[in-house]
Fold this protein.
Amino acid sequence: MNYIGSKAQLLPFLRANIEAFAGGDLSSKVFCDLFAGSGCVGKSFATDVRSLISNDQEYYSYVLNRAMLQTGILEGVDEIIASLNALPPTQGIIYKNYCEGSGSGRNYFSDRNGQKIDAMRQGIEAYKENEELYFFLLASLLLSADKVANTASVYSAFLKHLKPLAQEELCFQALDYQPMSKLHQVFCEDANTLISKLEGDILYLDPPYNRRQYGANYHLLNTIARYDSFVPKGKTGVRSYESSPYCKTTTALQALEKLIYEAKFSYIFISYNDEGIISSSMIAQMMQKYGKYESIKMPHHRFKAYQNKLHKHYIYEYLHFLEKF
Ligand SMILES: C[S@@+](CC[C@H](N)C(=O)[O-])C[C@H]1O[C@@H](n2cnc3c(N)ncnc32)[C@H](O)[C@@H]1O
């Protein structure tokens, strides 16, 4: 999944620095990924730490992280996926509101794929009693549907004509996962509310760094995951979403400082880039008040949807570290 702000390409950089600063062996540590997004950071540390706490305020992210961190060995999943793939397409919420053939005026999926998503999503409800399987199937559907979405990358707009990938038939594929034997926790809350209830060793913070609200950019993933009734708004069919204080210049630094102040964690790491709402020097100044501070930066590719010949292709990705007093 091409996720805004994903740290998938930066995992070696994060791991090397987190291990060096927090003392090497992480096997006795509780690690919290408070802005988990696609979940790639939590997933990569899940087998090395004593336990992991994952959180994100978006429901689609909660679904992905639950599936990646709380799925044990699943029996018979290949047969279930084959049966979902074989369901006859049906005209439900996705086709009616997000496909051109229904007259919705929106072109997020081909008519056939929209109807297939509806059939599969309705089919998944039959497994609701088995939460582990249910979230695993939901996460698998989100990632499978995302592959054939008719967008440049995010769901804040659709393309006028179906791009070649969107013309391909949706194939429901199982999430690539490693069965978990440890007890990891997954939350779907506002980070600033949740922080007071958490305790651990390593807190990794990767908040949004610009004005783009994730709830707007990934609204369709929330709609597929929730599959509830609501009135889609405007040209894009967006649903209502929580605004994040990290996406506003007037509130971002204050919200971040509140997290650092309240955190009951020994080591705190913040990922942020040099084009974000808060400058690196402001983050450094704020963090120095709370303990021993260091930082490191490395060049990193821009998020692809924003590539523009007039802009430089690299940004600097910072990792700010704090050993809290
Ligand atoms: C930069 S992304 C994280 C990317 C993630 N580390 C990855 O590699 O995929 C920021 C995340 O913060 C979440 N978020 C924004 N405001 C939040 C808040 N107040 N509480 C919890 N999560 C929030 C967004 O939904 C988004 O997934």
